[in-house]
Hints:
5 helices, 0% strand
Amino acid sequence: xxxxxxxxxxxxNNLIKAIKLVALNRGTTQTNVITDYxxxxxxxxxxxxxxxxxxxxxxxxxEVDEPFDATEEIRKMRNKE
Length: 81
C-alpha cells in the first residue's frame, strides 16, 4: 500500500469542473482522477523515474554480527536513549 500525504493545490476553476465531471462519470473520486492523470504524466519524465543509484550502492556495504533494525535505532535517537 502506498503512503499518502495530504496537500493543497490551487487549480484553475475550469480544471476543477472537468475533474469533477470525469470523477462523476467514472464513479470515482476527484483524488483518484488527479492521481491517475499525474501518474500518466510522470511516466515519461526522466527525473521522476530516475533511481537514486548512490543510495542503492550503499546497501549491504557494512556487515554486522547481529541484526540491525534501523527504525529502532532512529526511535532511540529521537528519544535520546
